[in-house]
Amino acid sequence: MTLSKRNILSLSLTDKRLARLLGGCALLAALVVVLILGFLLGESWPVLHHAPLTHFFTDASWHPTQHLYNVMPMLTATLLSSLGALLLAGPLGIASGLFMHYYAPPRLAGVYRRLIELLAGIPSVVYGFWGLVTLAPLVGRLHPPGVSLLTAILVLALMVLPTVALIADAALAAIPAAYLRGAAALGLSRWGMIAGVALPAARTGLVSGLLLATGRALGETMAVLMVAGNAVQQPHSLFDSVRTLTANIALEMAYAMGDHRAALFVSGLALMLLVLILVGMADVFQRKATYA
Amino acid sequence: MKKAISVAVLSLLILALGYFANRSNLSGSEAANPAASSTEKLVLTGSSTVAPLAAEIGKRFESRHPKVRIDVQTGGSSRGVNDARSGLADIGMASRALKPDEAELRGFTIALDGISIILNAANPLTTLDKQQIIDIFTGNITNWNELGGHDAPITVVNKAEGRSTLELFLHYFDLKNTDIKAQVVIGDNQQGIKTVAGNPDAIGYVSVGAAEYEAGHAVAIKLLPLDGIEASVENVRNSRFPLSRPLNLVTKTEPGGVAKAFIDFAGSAEVNDLIEAQYFVPVAH
Questions:
Q1: C-beta separation of A171 from A211 below 8 A
Q2: Given CB atoms, is B139 within the 8 Å cutoff of chain A?
Q3: Domain count across chain A
Q4: Do A257 and B199 count as a contact with CB atoms less than 8 A apart?
Q5: Is A229 within 8 Å of chain B by CB?
Q6: Pick from A66, A136, A231: which is nearest to B178 by CB?
Q7: In this structure, is residue A51 part of a structural domain?
Q8: pLDDT tens across B73-87, in order?
Q9: Is B195 touching A (CB cutoff 8 A)?
Q10: What phi and psi values does residue B41 have, to the nearest 5 degrees?
Q11: Using CB atoms within 10 A as the burial measure, which of A232, B97, B147, B282 is most buried?
Q12: Helices (H) and strands (E) in chain B, counts
């Protein structure tokens, strides 16, 4: 922290004012999250207060107009599709970051980086449309109906790939050159330098890239809505049609009334809790990794 | 210097706050007192099937009545009926007939729409009877070879809960949505047509107008006849096609003033070209 006067033992009046102002701004930002949670709870209340919470886990199915509110299949679908996308896009994204920095000739690396940035800028609905008219029929030839968990995973992987790749690129670029020179001076091979020096040094950046990608995959709505099939069921294979929580909200919100509407807010609440748990887990993991 | 900056930032913040507070005051007073402005505003909400048509009719109506603004918002037939009942909208839009428990509302049919069962164009079947359609949608028949088609599992395409197309379909076939075993659930007509066109083993249902238009523009779908009657705009118009629905404007009480003028205009022959441009069928005048 840089202070605005030479005596750094006590804060000047300006610093105190600035601290109060910044504190206020931080409080506002934190308040937004609390407000959103409160809003979700308030909107879900009409159904929560006369149907016990167990309804949402033990009902026979999701047919809200007939008062059946099981959200578990959609929770599973959300988790599986994001996990699948991350398993595909994670290694690919980090690999393309490594390629840009350590293997590609500089000019090729520049062109490649522009391409990845372009990929990041394509709107999700375009991916969804492409998935629906091109990818789904291809998957359907393997196993009908084509719109499925697998299609959703592939489209999501393509969408989060640029996030992982660009952040991996930035994390690798931030490694102090002295580390790499040191590794080279020790006579390490290129792969030895990557595995022994670059990856451990860039670990925090790589993990946060993966986290951002998970967030994007969990929250993606339009593309998944178009390619996942949206039948509410526990998937038994990659080729089964699934509905994610976000797709559920987008699909039904415009036409929902009363308890149905409140039940959709409950699925929003479930999504929010899921994200909170994931962020918490990532935090614990990172702390362990840092202090281990 | 630093102090000056923080003072400037603070005063900017205060200015912004004041601006927004002022704005919300303004819009509040406008909403409370619509007659104060010289233009009159008519709010329509409801069915996404009716909304594009209502917006087109609204444009033509505005051009003839320069002091009237027509505001069209979508949200489904149920919302249209609810908003008309609660007074949130001047006119509700519903792509179905009024239900018995909505009898206190007034409905005005401006056009007709039919629902057609659609198959992929590559499917060799050309007709299905009512019981076969029920068996397919409830999962009793799961392979096309049981009906004399290819040996391929059937992909059932259903609509999402709350859509009026789904309600009409369920009502006609006397089914509950819990009975339907769907592989794909879709939102709007276009998504349904794209899904069936991209999957040779799919069966779904969408608006006749939309399906006939797409089928006529080389999209790989075909419309199935129902009870021996071909699914076409023509047969919806003469009320022979069994699976059809009226597109209604709904008001809470007998409309007067601008609302009445708009409803009369929407039901007149002057907007037939707009109705046909959306692949709906004008009512007989």
A1: no
A2: no
A3: 1
A4: no
A5: yes
A6: A66
A7: no
A8: 877 788 899 999 999
A9: yes
A10: -115, 135
A11: A232
A12: 10, 10
Is A232 a member of any domain? Answer: yes
Tell me whether strands B40-46 and B68-74 are parallel, antiparallel or unpaired.
parallel
pLDDT digit string, tens, across residues A16-43: 889 999 999 999 999 998 999 999 999 9
Q: Which residues of chain A form beta strands (DSSP E)? A: 62-63, 68-69
Write down the ipTM of this complex. 0.75
Q: Does the pLDDT at position B26 exceed 50?
A: no
HEC profile of A93-107: HHHHHHHHHHHCCHH
Provide the shortest C-alpha distance from residue B199 to chain A (in Å): 6
From chain A, the residues in CB contact with B190 under 8 A are none
Residue-range domains of chain B with CATH: 36-112+246-282 (3.40.190.10), 113-237 (3.40.190.10)
Query: Looking at the partner chain, which of A21, A140, A255 has a beta carbon nearest the beta carbon of B199?
Result: A140
Identify whether A265 is part of a domain: yes
**Cβ-contact B95, B50 below 8 angstroms:** yes
For A142, the domain range is: 62-291
List chain A residues with pLDDT less than 50.
none
Interface of B with A in 223-242 (CB under 8 A): none
**A264 reaches B (C-beta below 8 A):** no
CA distance B76 to chain A (A): 5
C-alpha–C-alpha distance, residues A236 and A255, integer Å: 30
CATH number of the domain encompassing residue A93: 1.10.3720.10
Region label for A116, one of left (φ > 0), alpha (ψ between -120 and 50) or beta (otherwise): alpha
Contact between A254 and B75 using a beta-carbon 8 Å cutoff:
yes
Note whether A145 contacts B: Cβ–Cβ < 8 A. yes
| Residues of B with Cβ-Cβ distance to A144 under 8 angstroms | 152-153, 155, 183, 199, 201
Q: Pick left, alpha or beta for residue B228 (phi over 0 → left; psi -120 to 50 → alpha; otherwise beta).
A: left
User: Is B184 in Cβ contact with A243 (below 8 Å)?
Assistant: no
Q: Is residue A2 part of a domain?
A: no
Interface check for A282 against chain B (CB to CB < 8 A): the answer is no
Contact A267, A256 (CB under 8 A): no
Whether A230 and B185 lie within 8 Å, measured CB to CB:
yes
Query: Positive or negative, the Cα torsion across A64, A246, B194, A142?
Result: negative
Measured distance CA(B266)–CA(B253) in Å, rounded? 18
Provide the pLDDT for residue B180: 92
